[in-house]
Amino acid sequence: MGRVRIAAARLVFAGFLPALLLASVIDRPAGAADRFPLELKDDRGVTVRFAAPPRRVVSLAPSLTEIVFLLGRDGSLVGVTRFCDVPAAAALPKIGGVSDPDVERIVALSPDLVLCTTDGNPRDKVRTLEEMGIPCFAVAPQDLNGVFTAIERLGILLGAADRGRAEAGALRRRARLARSGFDGAETPAVLFVVSTAPIIAAGEGTFMDELVRLAGGRNAAARFSGRYPRLSVEGLVAARPDVIFVAGMSGVERFPPEVTRWKEVPAFRDDAVITLDGDLVTRPGPRLVTALERVSAALADWRANRPKAPAAGAGGER
User: Fold this and answer.
1) Which pLDDT value is given to residue 191?
2) Is 234 in contact with 212 (CB distance < 8 Å)?
3) CA 101 to centroid of chain Cα atoms
4) R_g of the chain computed on alpha carbons
5) Helical (H) or strand (E) element with 218
6) Measured between alpha carbons, how far is 92 from 83 in angstroms, rounded to an integer?
7) What average pLDDT does the segment 131-138 reach?
């Protein structure tokens, strides 16, 4: 009779153990977060489950590819988009673009995980992949802190939790350093344009808006409605930006002469138009901190080289 009870207890424990392990995934301390089996919810609220770290990963966005490389898990990548230009990704199979990924190509690569975004990837295609049994994990960072969190969460998902925390921590420290020292400093009006003809600027709620604010500037496009407002020449003159950053991409590196002739715009008058790598400032990945550092350095140079305003009582106007 005692043997029967022992056998029954073993069966109960065997059934209880998987549930116990699954619960421990949720309740265990952060330092053990990359142990498997793993259950993790993405930014859509969809839960993915893995018994072991994914071994065949497809990335549907350049920013995600850069994060995978940052985590040292690039060996698991089996497919990327044609826009994923990290040098070591050049030889990887291409599955189409961010907005037009090819489902058949993705399936042919037999991935056990597809990394996607909620902003750029078509929901219907992601849904199709999931209906075919391929787990998809979506991220949707809306600011720098969201990027750091995405790095940490992808580290957990890919079995590199310690590396994810370390890399995110290093980026946070760089960001704090880049935004320090602006208390009491002059706040320049800054316009960040993604197109020069027509003039389209980054408005409130964009990554470029955050870069400007963290670097101690004021977004000159905040007065216009929309995330990416289109500006007339009159609107540009009225905004009077002290500094203009251009997100350098094919065809948008230079303003046409009929625009730059307006010397009522301080940035044109003082030759304060600066071109930055478009990928650097638009991709919500680890290089966004480098973009912040460059914007901060440019605004610091503007403050250092700007002609001093006349002293009170000396007469004259700026």
Assistant:
1) 98
2) no
3) 19
4) 25
5) strand 218-219
6) 12
7) 97
